[in-house]
Design brief:
2 strands; single chain; 12% strand; alpha+beta; 85 residues; Rossmann fold; 3 helices
Amino acid sequence: MAEAAALDRAAHHRQRRRAGGGARRDGRAPAANPVTREHILARIPLGRVAEPEDVVGPTLFFCSPAASFVTGQILTIDGGLTATQ
């Protein structure tokens, strides 16, 4: 969907970017459930869920002029989980 939106907006010189992620330590399910949390942690190469601070930098990059030529991209912030699949 990000790609389709990016193509639609590109004609108007607008970019479409999204930072998405895996499990976060922010009280939301499923990482808040202790049993599920251990299962998730076992699958994440970095061995931990994301802290809110882990998402800030990549999100600020996408919002900055440095990303002005980036469009149609989804930056997955998941500690390497998707790289293992």
